[in-house]
Amino acid sequence: MTIYLPESATRGDGAEGKVPATLPVLPLKDTVSFPDTVIPLAAGQPRSIELLNDVLGGNRTLVMVASRSADVNEPGPDDLYDVGVVGTVARMMRVPDGTLRILVQTHQRVRLTEYVSTEPYLVARIEELPDVVEDTQELRALMRNVQSTSAKIIEQVPYLPEELAIALANIDDPSELAHAIAGALRIPTEEKQALLEELNVERRLRRLSQILARELEVISLGSKIQSQVQSELERGQREYYLRQQLKAIQEELGETDPEQAEARELREQVEAADLPDDVRKVAERELSRLERLPSQAAEHGVIRTYVEWIISLPWKTSTEDDLDLTKARRQLDRDHYDIEKIKERILEFLAVQKLKPDARSAILCFLGPPGVGKTSLGRSIAAAMGRRFERISVGGVRDESEIRGHRRTYVGAMPGTIIRAIRDAGANNPVLMIDEIDKMGAGFQGDPASAMLEVLDPEQNTTFRDHYLDLPFDLSRVLFITTANVLDTIPAPLRDRMEVIQLSGYTEAEKLEIAKRYLVPRQIERNGLSKSKIEFVDEALELIIDGYTREAGVRNLEREIGAVCRKVAREFAEGKRTRKRVIRPRTVTELLGRRRFIEESKIRPRQPGVATGLAWTPVGGEILFIEAAAYPGDGRLQITGQIGDVMRESAAAALSWAKANVARWGRAVPDDWWRTHDIHLHVPAGAIPKDGPSAGVAMATALVSLVTGRFVRPDVAMTGEVTLTGQVLPIGGLKEKSLAAHRAGITTVIAPKLNQPDLDEIPPQLRRGIEFKWVDRVDQVLREALEPDDGDRPSRRGRAASRPSAPGDGRAGARRSRARA
What we know:
alpha/beta; disordered C terminus
């Protein structure tokens, strides 16, 4: 607070004497001092306390300058304004917390021209800035306007004392008047500093008049708003009183109040609902609150919605399980082809439920690529068990409240997706499918995966508490089924609560059966056709599977079948066809255009340094072409194709093994050959990220093929992790990789010997179409993969150089350096 004193009171000994050329500078935070005033200050910074101690031991004079930013604890010269006020410390008091309280009497306005010292505190050279005053009629009019406006503000603002209005009315000096008013107002520091720096008194008063007018308008508007709020409160109290009287009159007349009718209807629903005792107690308590509230109250609708949610939930309502295992087996076989492992697991669950009805439900996780029937399988399970089915998708969910609900304190609050799905099912034991559980993510609103821990834990979900309901709901009777494409993105605690069942991709024979049994009839019906109008022969379906789709599931296959049906439907609709259309291979090409996919082994480059590897992806298996090339250099290894760190390390291990062992697989290589050539490994396609160790044997084979000039068999694909000692370690996803090899026309797959037990998971028809070679050493891989070096390979003209030939073998070097474009 700034205290105004008359000029006679502020002109002490320190003011009458000449101001020193240099003075210590005391920075002010969030305030500006004006001449001819007394200002109380508190000092807590160590250098400010040291400055005041030195000033009190001297002439007690200093310069006070406002800081440009309140966030700087120890402002420097660049952080302070250039104009301040000279002041004399009139009184000082030490506080027990170590800070100082001082009372400063201000004098002249000065400009800081140069800082002569910054340690231990700021010291600056100063020059006085006297006022510029011209006694005019406009100046006197501005003084009266400022005095009048400030008096109005003082009447409405509680922080300004009434005595200030009397003091301002008795000031005749225009400069003193401006200083007194500016120091008393609560306006931004920048505006106060601008008033201090204005030397022309008339312009200063004009700017101050504008500020006062603005402040008076804001204060008047605030008073108006306050009066409106007060009148609204009084009107609300009046309406409440009148409604209470109307209620009493209606009771006397026997008329029904709409609010009472609504509350009575809710109470009847609560009494009729089969609620647990603790839930019924909460519902009746909320109903009692609802009956006491007027309908205009903000909480009236919140309570009504809450009670309606309690009534709508199936607290004790459940469906009776159909535990006929034979019927369930027929249902599963009718809806899905193959997937025997999942069918057996469902039948086992039904058998346990039949023998022990109170057994807890299992938490199943269907893991597999898109389009293999994970979601539709959940519907079949519900139909086989005679339960209701509900599905929720949590892909992309980043808010924990989506699972647990919002608390009722928030506007528009509602229960989470779990409780909403239970309400929609109308029973407390449905089959609840949680789709895309691997695609949940944490955000600043919380981690939904952590909220799922309670939902999917049979030990905890008996008392699941939604934030909106704030009541325990038993989820132990719900059969939860989750679906995922990958396991890596699911947190380990959540993954531990689920029984993972793998759904791999389908073979071509399985896709053919699925198309004949399910996809073709469904698309014929959806497109308004019938069996009398369209028929697919097996060869046509095989062409669509092999030439127009490349997937682990059957989603795109159904899409292409639907495209054929739509074109045939158009022919019938336009009257171009009246007889049955038989879809043959030639017809497929006519309707769908040219074949989109060919066997990938047919586009494999036929040259040394190229090997075929196998990879696993979330959407199924894929084949990889590992390409190696050599050129003059200094022995560096370059790897391209968006390769991850693990795959780079695998390539380095394969190169080291090849350097140490290549001599046993071809002609001798000079000792300096590796030092004088760079090796480039490329794994197409370059736009697809790749990682993992299972391409190690393919990289080693490509390197040995490059250096020796021996071709890799085009019908062979391989997978396995390689070590520096030449061991072949086991890998994952053998079934998916085998399916990819089968789709690509590969007839021989080289795999780690330790993966031989995984052969049981591969369908019999796939095992008959592929010959598996089980190996545990890289030497065995090379024996199976490399073509014999018998010197009788046919010559290939027009091949460009892909790597320099090894010295001493011109013919083999020339043969190895040719490549087809």
